[in-house]
């Protein structure tokens, strides 16, 4: 935990695309993949302060899947002992999504975790309305001890893929106008199904990959395609900065495995 390591760690998941039947494209178990993130964290000893899922929790038209998604989020919360926070994406149903934990009264809000503020925004229409922007301005007027993370589905930056280039947040400038000069240390987003990192107006932006499928980057200028390669991100804030690492849920065979003793680590560091 951050109290021990000086790092505030977030498991950043996105684009689950759960279905009523349980399988997307007869192959992808989105709810099961949420569970597998918990398996990964426990197996590797990662102790996050929070889990953030940036939208498209269900596949469009599969509102019945919210019950399973909500149950998976509660189990992950219990298993890791940290809050699991979710935002809505363009596939989500804002009425049915009220069944999700934390969405009963609305789809945006602020949460304090070990002195860090995590703000959830609702961009399911690919824009942020004036109500949210006004609320956000007022919320950010008081800085948080550990700074702020903003989470939403649509990134305020464009994808490098021609077919996705115009699929980011429609009123990105309006959001950034509010965030500049505030204590926001990172923006977490999804939607593109591929990882992307950038700095815009001095604010780091991390677009997380998808738990459902990964966008094929060479599908061509007039097509999109996905392959079954579920991933999520490990985002860490320290006093010096912020970083994001992409983690695959698939496990190819290693080329080699070599134990490293603490003595060897110290020697390598000295050299």
Describe the structure.
This protein is α/β, with parallel strands linked by helices and 271 residues long. The chain contains six helices and 13 strands. The longest helix has 15 residues.
**Ranges with pLDDT <50 over ≥5 residues?**
none
**Using DSSP, what is the number of strands?**
13
Give the amount of beta strand, in percent: 15-25%
Structural class assignment:
alpha/beta
Indicate the overall shape.
Answer: globular
Q: What's the mean pLDDT score?
A: 93
Helix proportion of residues, in percent? Answer: 10-25%
- What radius of gyration results from the CA coordinates? 19 Å
- Which H/E pattern describes the elements? HEHEHEEEHEHEEEEEEEH
Strand order of the largest sheet: 4-5-6-7-9-8
Beginning-to-end CA distance, first to last residue: 30 Å
Number of continuous helical runs: 6
Q: Strand count, sense and closure of the main sheet?
A: 6 strands, mixed
């Amino acid at each position: 935990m951050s109290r021990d390591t000086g790092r505030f760690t977030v498991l950043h998941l996105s684009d689950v695309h759960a279905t009523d039947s349980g399988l997307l494209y007869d192959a992808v178990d989105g709810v099961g993949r949420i569970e597998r993130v918990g398996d990964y964290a426990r197996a590797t000893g990662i102790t996050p302060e929070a889990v953030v899922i940036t939208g498209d929790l269900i596949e469009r038209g599969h509102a019945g899947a919210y019950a399973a998604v909500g149950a998976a989020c509660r189990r992950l919360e219990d298993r890791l002992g940290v809050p699991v926070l979710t935002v809505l994406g363009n596939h989500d149903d804002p009425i049915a999504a009220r069944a999700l934990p934390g969405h009963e009264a609305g789809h945006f809000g602020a949460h304090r975790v070990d002195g860090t503020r995590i703000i959830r925004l609702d961009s399911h229409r690919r824009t942020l309305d004036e109500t949210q922007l006004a609320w956000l301005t007022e919320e950010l007027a008081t800085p948080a001890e550990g700074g702020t993370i903003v989470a939403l589905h649509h990134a305020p930056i464009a994808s490098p893929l021609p077919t996705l280039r115009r699929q980011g947040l429609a009123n990105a400038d309006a959001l950034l106008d509010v965030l500049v000069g505030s204590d926001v240390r990172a923006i977490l987003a999804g939607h593109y199904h591929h990882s992307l990192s950038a700095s815009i107006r001095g604010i780091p932006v991390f677009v997380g990959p998808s738990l459902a499928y990964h966008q094929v980057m060479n599908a061509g200028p007039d097509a999109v395609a996905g392959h079954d390669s579920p991933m999520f991100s490990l985002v860490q804030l320290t006093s010096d900065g912020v970083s994001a690492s992409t983690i695959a849920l698939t496990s190819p065979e290693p080329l080699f495995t070599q134990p490293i003793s603490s003595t060897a680590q110290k020697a390598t560091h000295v050299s």
